[in-house]
Amino acid sequence: MDEANLMEKIVSLCKRRGFVFPGSEIYGGLAGTYDYGPLGVALRDNLKDLWWRRFVTTRDDMVGLDSSIIMPEAVWAASGHLEGFADPMVECEKCKRRFRADHLDGATECPECGGTLGTPKMFNLLFPVDMGSTSGASRGYLRGEIAQGMFVNFKNVIDVTHLKLPFGIAQSGKAFRNEIAPRDFLFRVREFDLMEFEYFIREDEWKTSFEYWRKEMWEWIEETGIRKESVHELEVPSTDRAHYSKRTIDFEFDYPFGRKELYGLAYRTDYDLTRHAERSKKDLSYLDETTGKRFIPHVIEPTFGLGRTVLAVLCSAYDEDELGGEKRAILRLNPNVAPIKAMVSPLLKNKPELVEKAREVRASLRKVHPAIAWDDNGNIGKRYRRQDEVGTPFCVTVDFDTLGEHKELKDTVTLRDRDTGKQERLTVHQVVDRIRAAIA
Ligand code: GAP
After folding, report:
1. Which CA distances in Å does 107 have to 115, 120, 126, 257?
2. pLDDT at 135
3. Residue 132 scores a pLDDT above 80
4. Distance between CA atoms of 251 and 214, rounded to whole angstroms?
5. Peptide bond before 166: cis, by omega within 30 degrees of 0?
6. Opening angle at CA 202, ends 240 and 153, nearest 5
7. pLDDT tens digits, 15-37
8. Nearest CA to ligand 1 atom 22
9. What is the tens place of the pLDDT at every residue in 69-128?
10. What local confidence, expressed as pLDDT, does residue 116 receive?
11. Residue 215 CB-density burial (10 A; 0-12 exposed, 13-18 middle, 19+ buried)
12. Dihedrals phi, psi of 254, to nearest 5 degrees
């Protein structure tokens, strides 16, 4: 496939087919925000559900949490984000545009207008929120990372679950960062979804646990359909690590705009729990019932940006080829994450007996998965192309043979495979089994 303009093609497909729209578009858009459309919500939520199933519901050592988005200043003071969660910013003296100083390779001129750039200043990424209607409103912040929800609820969770180390607390939800220069579509935005867990361990287990989660992250990458060859580990040097981390590996992806961070794996030591215990004056220690000793657990944190996952999945799946002498754009999505699992159509929409039978077939397939689309518009070839472009793995066509025009073919349908374009004559039962196996 011709990789030129790949990003433009993906952004345009996302808009045209309802995956992702610019945020607040009718008012000219709001920088650093995007809205997920009907197919985008389905793709994003399939990925989120897959993640939750893999890392939470199918494990005995992990529990879920959904903590508040607004958290008080005290949390961010304790976590170190009020001081340390900042990027270097420079402003152009002429056009007043702002840039990340560390993205400019030491340039002294504005990349937009050629004006002189001012002196770099550190710019805090947390979004402040003033709460309450009376004067002296209290200051909170939209969470800059979801991790703090797990730390401030550590005691609540161990009190109600009686979990034994090692164990994890997981959540997925929105995070907010006042990025100086949001860019590259879903890659760097100001409001985004994160999926992550804090895995609590004894200090001497950190290296083993780190290696274990590193492998698990690769398995997750495989399950999503992200092209593995395009993912690379980067050992983050101590000078670039977050203030809380003793070791970090970034999983970088080859996006069309360059190799950049997809996920992170960090050893956060006992930094967060210790700081919250000191500042809140609450006992956040763990009691080892066999030794009778109390201590603050250490933490391994695998973190997964959901928007960046959607983007990496789309970049991995997007393809163009020629089928039957016609060019087509196709999303080769894994069936388990595809927004639509199959499309059913009657060969002709003006034949009530075909429509009725096709509706019956659709109802049978919907027992396997609800995301079974219906399309009776235009010719069959066009219907197939529309589904290829949004990654639907199967198309099912009901024709006169399904009704028994040739007796031996009664109750069979045509199953068309997205990737090969190959068509097979199968019974409805066989199609049900095929779809069930593909999305398992
Ligand atoms: N709790 C750890 C943490 O938040 P991070 O590396 O700052 O670590 C986690 O962010 C993940 O969030 C990143 O690996 C990336 O996938 C995603 N991410 C970070 N900033 C983002 C942004 N501005 N837009 C979209 N995703 C972002």
Report:
1. 11, 11, 27, 20
2. 66
3. yes
4. 10
5. yes
6. 80
7. 999 999 999 999 999 999 999 99
8. 188
9. 999 999 999 999 999 899 999 999 999 999 999 989 889 999 999 999 999 999 999 999
10. 94
11. exposed
12. -80, 85
Reduced 3-state DSSP string for 91-115:
EECCCCCEEEHHHCCCCCECCCCCC
CA-closest candidate to residue 17, choices 386, 371, 317: 386
- pLDDT at 136 > cutoff 90: no
For ligand 1, residues with CB inside 6 Å are 145, 147, 177, 179, 188-189, 192, 194, 196, 261-264, 301, 303, 305, 307-308
> pLDDT tens digits for 161-175?
989 999 999 999 999
Nearest atom in ligand 1 to the alpha carbon of residue 306 is: 16
Residue 138 Ramachandran class (φ > 0 left, ψ -120 to 50 alpha, else beta)? beta
pLDDT tens digits, one per residue of 360-374 = 999 999 999 999 999
Nearest to 4 by CA among 311, 252, 253, 257: 257
| SS3 call for 21 | strand
Angle (CA) 145 8 338, round 5°: 65
Nearest Cα residue to 332 out of 437, 227, 184, 414:
227
Strand ranges in 221-361 using DSSP code E only, listed in sequence order: 231-235, 247-255, 258-269, 286-288, 293-295, 298-305, 318-323, 326-331, 342-346
State the average pLDDT for the chain.
96
Reading the block at residue 254, the tokens are 């080859």
How many angstroms separate the CA atoms of 407 and 120, rounded? 78
Residue 64 contacts residue 52 (beta carbons within 8 Å): yes
Has residue 191 got a pLDDT over 80?
A: yes
In whole angstroms, give the CA distance from residue 303 to residue 28. 32
Whose alpha carbon is nearest atom 3 of ligand 1? Answer: 145
DSSP state for residue 67 in the 8-state scheme? -
Q: Which strand ranges, in their side-by-side order, compose the sheet holding 86-91? A: 98-100, 86-91, 121-124
In DSSP notation, 117-164 reads B---EEEE--EEEEE-SSSSPEEEEE-S-THHHHHHTHHHHHHHH---
| Size of the chain in residues | 440
Evaluate whether 420 touches 393 at the Cβ level (below 8 Å): no
C-alpha of residue 175 to centroid of ligand 1, in Å? 8
Q: Relative to the CA of 190, which ligand 1 atom is closest?
A: 23
* Contacts (Cβ under 8 Å, ≥6 apart) of 20: 11, 14, 34, 35, 36, 37, 40, 185, 186, 310
Higher pLDDT, 132 or 421: 421
